[in-house]
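User:
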Amino acid sequence: MRYSLKQLAVFDAVADTGSVSVAAEKLALTQSATSMSLAQLEKMLGRPLFERQGKQMALTHWGMWLRPKAKRLLQDAQQIEMGFYDQQLVSGEISIGASQTPAEHLVPDLISIIDNDFPEIRIDLSVKSTQAVIEGVLDYKFDLGIIEGRSDDNRIHQEEWCRDHLTVIASSHHPFAKRATVSLAQLEQAKWVLRERGSGTRKTFDSSIHHLVEDLDVWREYEHVPVLRSLVANGPYLTCLPYLDVERYIEMGKLVALNVPELNMERTLSFIWRADMAENPLAECIMREGFRMMKGRSLFL
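Assistant: Predicted structure:
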């Protein structure tokens, strides 16, 4: 075996950052030492792992083939080192990408449990849209993802964590607020403000309504739920949001959940990870604690 873990770490860092200089900074190496390690690895393997595209380093076919295997070796090496150093088998750092609904309502409780029971696990959390979380998992930015809805990409493994549901929302002074039911025709006549395309909420809403309503009057699209809540509470708009995001405002009387019998917008919240990645004790620990946390919560499966 002629290659070293250091060379694989350099390869992995360049693949992550797309830059030799940024990878060198990340690894606390000089740029020349980083370039030399990468060149030595390519020479030993007899294949080019990167090609230059402007200022960026892009993976070749061989680089893409190597990347999950290098990740696996580096993860195993980290577990060996941390396990012996701390006498703690479940230790190390894990990067998690979570979409907005689970990040706001579920992940903080999960992190608290992990911090209490597994203090040697360090969690790096990023909050993105569902599509960005999927892309981050595929691009090795996240070891574990938590998304709304489903991914149909066969490079992703997915395990359902729990369920929630979306609801159509209006202000308490909206003309539809006092109606026992709201028709599809009335939805078509309304002004809408919605989550941006690529979010799990928008994907679920679009897939539920597209075959029922020909055209919605969408005035604005925003990433942040508080913006949508405020617009609806103070204006003539409708929106569609997870019940978790509006429950408190409904109880305070600021918002009203409309009854649209034709719409069934239940959905899953799921853990995702790359199909070609090896077993990851940290990810397995977090998922196990996540399932344990959900027991007894009536809103979820």
